[in-house]
Write a structure and sequence with these properties.
Blueprint (H helix, E strand, L loop, with lengths): L10 E6 L3 H14 L3 E6 L13 E5 H9 L3 H5 L3 E3 L1 E6 L9 E6 L5 H6 L4 E5 H15 L2 E3 L3 E7 L2 E6 L4 E4 L1 E4 L6 H5 L4 E17 L6 E7 L2 E7 L8 E10 H7 L4 H12 L6 E17 L3 E2 L2 E3 L5 E2 L7 H21 L7 H29 L5 H7 L4 H4 L3 H5 L20
Parallel strand pairs: 1-2, 1-12, 2-8, 5-14, 12-19
Antiparallel strand pairs: 3-7, 4-7, 5-6, 9-10, 10-11, 13-16, 13-17, 14-15, 15-16, 17-20, 18-19
The protein binds flavin-adenine dinucleotide.
């Protein structure tokens, strides 16, 4: 079988992995270059946005600006819930009250954001977000192919990929966005520094009787953070939140092995009854947690993107936000080359992308790791500091900015789409 080659004069980008950041990259490029660039997303599960059901993400301001620039925010925001306040407590499961040691709301936002009137983050459900991106990609002419990539071979000025269907394609650049266990990263012999946490992330959608008022809670319990994140109203009890519950892996097996009522009772012990009666609406699903960062974000005609490049602890809900920043930076580097008539898969383009993203990703990965180690612990000087009423955490420089996803990159160094500017 011969490899399908792009039309003469046009350029071609292949994207392995059809996650949210990949679709955003394909859409940004196709909107900017139209027929001059072929964009193909390859993923065996591409045609099934249902695989995202039950997942929700805290989308920081940069991601929101990017979606607005791509013309999607109006649709996505209809199903999103603004987070107006975040309350953080440091307590034990049995504590009857969980006093907040850190609270922040609109006054802690970026001054420009505040002037623009937006909250610092939105909870966005993954399924409608993926659907909106998929539809916009199709309308813009992105090719979405339900097949996996089994092999990628750089051949001079192009890269050839072989698919699970036996088909072959050729492009100027292959983006490996095939997730944390990226086979393409491995095949390209890009090293990986990382480890697994002895914790898992348990995700579920919880219905509750009282409104959340846009408030997000993160309880730092000894086995890890338990986050309650507001979703759009709905469900049998009228109101809904998403929980991301970090638990020791061995404990999680025991806690989740009970029947539905027992699992709900365990959730209730951590959730507390501040929001009235609760019910399980979706899940729970269990996710292994890891830290990892690729030694390079590029190889010959190959760029790593999203979890294929970096995996971080969900303590601050920033993994997808990093992937969107990758997409914005890569779209910018490729666009810069195409506008000058240059090769979008050249080492210069890939170096510019790597420069834009590696430090930011590492800084966020290291910060989430440090925070997890600091809080997922029962014998902390920090706990003592809280008990002595020192308000020390509230004064930790940068902690609030970190939680609102604005810590790693300074505004000026963010990719254009994340600043809300066109490519
Ligand atoms: C418990 C938990 C909570 C989280 N909460 C948040 C949050 O609130 N906010 C946030 O920003 N982030 C959050 N994250 C992180 C976020 O889920 C990930 O960073 C994000 O989903 C990674 O997206 P991705 O597209 O890079 O990878 P994935 O979502 O893993 O997608 C990879 C895709 O590649 C495809 N694929 C695999 N192999 C191939 C192949 N050979 N060829 C073609 N396709 C292939 C797969 O089918 C899959 O669709 C959380 C993570 C966890 C575990």
């Amino acid at each position: 079988m011969t490899a399908q080659t792009p039309r003469p004069g046009s350029r071609s980008i292949l994207i392995a992995g059809g996650g949210i950041a990949s679709l955003a990259l394909a859409l940004a490029l196709k909107q900017a270059h139209g027929p001059a660039l072929a964009a193909t997303v390859l993923d065996p599960h591409a045609a099934d946005p249902g695989r995202h059901r039950g997942r929700a993400y805290a989308l920081a301001a940069g991601g929101r600006r990017m979606l607005a620039q791509l013309g999607l925010w109006e649709r996505v925001s209809a199903a999103a819930e603004p987070i107006t306040e975040m309350v953080i407590s440091d307590s034990r499961v049995a504590d009857p009250v969980r006093p907040a040691f850190l609270t922040f709301g609109r006054e802690d936002e970026d001054r420009e954001e505040r002037a623009a009137g937006g909250p610092f983050a939105h909870m966005v459900e993954a399924e409608p977000l993926a659907e909106a991106l998929m539809e916009a990609c199709r309308a813009a002419g992105v090719d979405i192919v339900p097949a996996g990539v089994v092999r990628a071979v750089p051949e001079g000025a192009t890269i050839r990929v072989e698919l699970t269907t036996g088909a072959r394609l050729r492009g100027d650049l292959l983006v490996a966005a095939d997730g944390a266990r990226s086979r393409l990263r491995e095949a390209a012999r890009i090293g990986w520094v990382g480890w697994s946490y002895p914790q898992v992330g348990i995700v579920a959608t919880i219905g509750h009787a009282r409104p959340h008022g846009g408030r997000a809670f993160e309880h730092f319990l000894p086995s890890g953070p338990f986050a309650i994140l507001p979703l759009r109203d709905g469900g049998a009890l009228g109101h809904r939140s998403s929980i991301v519950w970090t638990e020791r892996a061995d404990e999680a097996d025991v806690l989740l092995s009970g029947d539905a009522d027992e699992v709900l009772a365990e959730i209730e012990r951590r959730f507390t009854l501040n929001l009235g009666r609760i019910a399980l609406e979706h899940g729970p699903s269990r996710h292994p947690l890891a830290f990892g960062i690729a030694r390079a974000f590029r190889a010959e005609r190959l760029a790593l993107l999203g979890d294929a490049a970096h995996v971080i602890h969900p303590i601050a809900g920033q993994g997808l936000n990093l992937g969107l920043a990758d997409a914005a930076a890569l779209a910018e580097a490729v666009t810069g080359a195409l506008r000058l008539g240059l090769d979008p898969g050249s080492p210069d383009v890939l170096r510019a992308y790597e420069r834009a993203r590696r430090f930011d990703s590492f800084a966020m990965a290291a910060a989430t790791d440090g925070l997890n180690r600091l809080f997922s612990n029962d014998a902390l000087p920090l706990r003592l500091a809280r008990d002595l009423g020192l308000g020390i955490v509230d004064r930790l420089p940068g902690l609030k900015r970190f939680f609102i996803g604005e810590a790693a990159a300074s505004r000026g160094s963010r990719p254009r789409l994340m600043r809300g500017e066109a490519l």
